[in-house]
Write a structure and sequence with these properties.
With 229 residues, this protein is α+β, with helices and mostly antiparallel strands. It is 17% helix and 15% strand. It has 4 helices and 8 strands, in the order αααβββαβββββ. The strands form 3 sheets. It has a 3-stranded mixed sheet, with no helix packed on it. A 3-stranded antiparallel sheet has the order 5-6-7, with no helix packed on it. A hairpin with a 2-residue loop joins β6 and β7.
């Protein structure tokens, strides 16, 4: 018997067996009167490869959501730096305080050129002082009571006097005394009033001073001889 014929016989037997089995199933279920289907369709079960075991409800997958775009954090604002403090403007050096003291060079009757302070007192010089190189007063203690020195911490205002000749010298007690051309200036405690010159020629060493610092010898008391220049 050929191979093809044997295959045909086998196929026929298998078909007959299938018919017999189908009739048996049909008989067992009441002759096919039940409306309940014998087997579930692919639609009822779902695709096994997608949903797992038969009889398990299909797990519905939620549609994938687009990934949220991360919120970009704004960089903290950089605070505006405060303007740098400007250094204080350089101040000009303070001017020396103006002196309230005043010296006046003027001409008066009989005496000629003299120097007076702001109160009109006549100024004198002492021949025993040392005018150069820095000026030095040799009238201290009781002498300074009789002949009060003209004291000032600043150069006085001047009128009728060359300001270049006016300076300050330091006394033995540390106080400053006004001088003209290095000669220290004094008043006389015995002058009775402003403008008087009773101190002229006293002791042959005290004389009214002129605006240039020289002694005035225009009017000398009796018995007083003008010293050599």
């Amino acid at each position: 018997m050929s191979v093809i014929r044997r295959n045909r016989i086998a196929i026929g037997l298998a078909a007959g067996l299938a018919v017999v089995l189908g009739l048996g199933v049909w008989s067992a279920t009441g002759g096919g009167t039940s409306s309940k289907p014998v087997a579930q369709t692919e639609t009822d079960l779902g695709v096994l490869g997608d949903y797992g075991d038969v009889g398990q409800p299909p797990v519905l997958q939620e549609p994938a959501q687009a990934p949220e775009t991360p919120v970009q954090q704004q960089a903290p604002e950089t605070p505006t730096p405060a303007p740098a403090a400007q250094p204080p403007a350089a101040q000009p050096p303070a001017a020396a305080p103006a002196s309230s003291l005043k010296l006046v060079g003027k001409a008066v009757d009989k005496m000629g050129l003299v120097v007076q302070d702001g109160d009109g007192r006549t100024m004198y010089r002492f021949d025993k002082d040392t005018p150069k190189p820095e000026g030095k007063s040799n009238c201290n203690n009781q002498c300074a009571v009789t002949w009060p020195p003209l004291l000032s911490d600043t150069i006085p205002q001047v009128e009728g006097i060359d300001s270049k000749l006016v300076s300050l010298i330091t006394r033995a007690d540390g106080k400053k005394q006004v001088a003209i051309d290095g000669w220290a200036l004094y008043a006389y405690s015995q002058d009775p009033k402003p403008g008087a010159w009773k101190g002229q020629g006293v002791g042959g060493t005290w004389f009214v001073i002129q605006p240039d610092g020289k002694r005035n010898v225009e009017c000398l008391p009796p018995g007083v001889t003008a010293p050599a220049a």
